[in-house]
Amino acid sequence: MVRSWLQRHYNWWVLICVCLGSLAMGLPFFSYGALLPYLSSLFYFKTGRIVSQAAMALQPVILLMGITLTGSLAGVLEYYMNVRLLNFILTALYVAAVAVSYYVHSYTFLTILMVFIGTLAGQINVCNVARLSEWNPTKSGTANGIMGFFMGISGFLGSFLCTIVINPYNKQPVEVQVGNETAMLFVDKSVTDHTQLIWLAWAAVIAGLYFPGLFILRRPEVEEENELFNSAIESYEAGEERSPLVKSNGTVSDYGVVDTESSTPDESYAADLVLDPVSSSSGCLVCCSNNSSSCFKNPDYSIKETLKQPTFYVLYLVILTLSLALLTSTELYKIIAIEAINDDRFLNMVGALGSVLNAFGRLTWGMILDQIGTRYTFTLSFLVMGPLTISLHYTKWSRYGYLINLCVVTFCTGIFTCIAPACQELFGRKDISLKYAATLSAESFGCVLFFLLQLGQEFLFGELQFLIMMGVPSIIAAFLAYFTFYQCRCEQCTTKNLTFKPE
Questions:
Q1: Is 318 helix (H, G, I), strand (E, B) or coil?
Q2: Could you tell me the pLDDT band of residue 71, with boundaries at 50, 70 and 90?
């Protein structure tokens, strides 16, 4: 059968559409830190009251909670709905919800709307990750890293739009006092009058970015899955890459092919053995002849089996701590520094460059994970992230010191993109959408903890103590990752990681 050029390179088109969709999905969340001071000023202009820092931080927290907590719903809906139809419905609702925010003048109603926007964004994100894994089965870390790069630069795009739409003349905030409360707010009417226009600008950009994916994104057919794995086999034999080589219809690569439909009973039995983890003394798969004690199992659990594994809950806790540093660096960078750096354009530039470094971090950590595995990748990232989150309190008194510090922290939080590859490496590819969504829900609990600590900062302790509570958990997470995330890294298992059993 003659196939068109588009069909022969369909996985690349899927990657492009998923990257554009990730850019659109991340736009409100990763830009909210730049928007918060403008919204605070708008609410003061409308009501004459100052909305507290903790209350304003609640909106991006709820947005992230919606993204992380409801993603599993998309995994369930995909079982009952056509993927393209589901994608169209979620995208239309998402664009409409962002556009409707233009008409919302109340803090309460806008907070409620953030719940809805976050819910839709989370489901779209899980659908995108699932399509990416299906069309790029042998390079999950790198593919998710590329997707994460585009999600990361959404903050750069959002900060740029905030500058040109809301504050193109670089008006500066002033200290405002109402009763016992004081805040740095924009009182220039040209700023407050243009604040709500940002929602329409974001909605238009989001619609344009999602449009190609409505026609491209779908599940691969069986023949296409086989072709993807055959390409991986050919690449390996040519010495181009070292990839997991398993075909979805029950055939596996042993530098040759065993076909369960045409093989003899003995050969079929051997193929079944290769597909299943075994409880041998080495802990390896049958395919592995390495009997070293340092070799560990590469399992392929279902979602129910995954939830019974202690390692899952360690990963869950690690991702929870990641949300603390992520929220601090993306949503509070202006609030932390506005006292010491009274230059709105510079702080927007800090947020924009931080987003660019976060984007490169997502790409880099994904590539690193493909090379050295989850254990060392997570350990390195969290070990750097923790201390530098705390040091934001000190470096804010130096403009460029703060810029460098924030950029390194946001680069490290790019490890976010490795959640799906980590799930695949530690627990296997089966039910990957549900595993990813279940692990991602840890960030929802991190959001709740973040908000409670924000309240504590406002009423009980200061900024330094708050940042210590944001940074120390990352240091603990680094040690948990190092001592818990074991996996087989021997040559046999890294080149022939035959852990995927077709459903």
A1: helix
A2: low
